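Assemble and predict.
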Amino acid sequence: MLDALATLGRAGLAVLASLGRAHLLLAGILGGLPSMLIRPRLLLAQLYGIGVLSLLIIVVSGLFVGMVLSLQGHYVLSQFGAAESLGVMVAASLVRELGPVVTALLFAGRAGSALTAEIGLMKATEQLSGLEMMAVDPVKRVLTPRFFGGLISMPLLAALFSAVGVLGGWFVGVGLLGVDDGAFWGQMQNKIDFNEDVLNGVIKSLVFGLVVTWIALYEGYDAIPTSAGVSRATTRTVVQSALAVLGLDFILTALMFGG
Amino acid sequence: MARIRLSEILVGAFMALGFVALFFLAMRVSNLSMATASEGYTLTARFDNIGSLRVRAPVSMSGVRLGRVEAIDFDQETYQAVVTLRIADRYDQIPSDTFANIFTAGLLGEQYIGLDPGGSPDMLIDGDRIEFTQSALVLEQMIGQFLLSKAEDGGE
């Protein structure tokens, strides 16, 4: 009985300690901002690795998500004789929800897992300790540029996803299913508000970018320095990022559009 | 050196692409390109019942959108809804005896304000009030009246 209680307590304390380490790491990462600004080349390399190399999967997924949305939306809307609202439906669901969320999930799989594996392996092969031996702070030198690379890339990728998705929806809706071109864009512009919809989507993607990159960096930095430990950390990054993104999305949606 | 230069170019292209996407969302998808709140002039109209009219609903004449509903208030003395309309500046030839109706777009669509032009030579200017209005048709009331008249027919 007491043993079970002790196990529960130990698990709870471990979670708290892990949360504490994650926040200390975040503080350390943010503290590295000035020294990163002196060497912008480090950030550039990460923007390339995190942002540019994610372009292909984001653009292709956005295109197909938009096309499928348009196809399914047309099927339902045409039953009510409201096929002209297709543009609104496609744009609203992309800009508000699917753009930020699907981009964040893909981002966690494409960039987050790579970050965790890279940093975990750096730790396992004692490259991080090597930096420390040379009196270089590995958090500032290695983690900070990666963090800001993710934070900057994510909103841009999400905006690209939404924009390509709208174009894909337009291609299917107007090009293949014969919805009127003017009604498609006109109703969309009528209903989609820049501050209400587009800016809130950008805020969402910023939050997701922060959370996913933070989880990925923390898991890599905190990984047990063995091959099994790095593998487990990479898995945890993807799972925890996905859960965090979906949970946060509900909270953000409730705050932004719920009232 | 050439590799760094290449990655610089690619990162630049990526960021430019992201901003182009944001710009596209702002101008083409959302309403940022349209007249914003500060443009145009305002008119007010009083309705006994506005149904489910909402702020930002369209205001149209002959089916062309002239402006939007800017605000909806309630007058506690006359128990009427006071609707403020913002009309674009280029539509400044609206006669003073214009009639304002609340219509529904389609059977279940959203409600909007439709203006019927009058014949007066005087035009409405900023701050004027549209005198002639007709309330929204509330579906429940119509069904109630219909049932009532049916019941009366049946009684005879």
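The helical segments of chain B are 2-29, 139-155.
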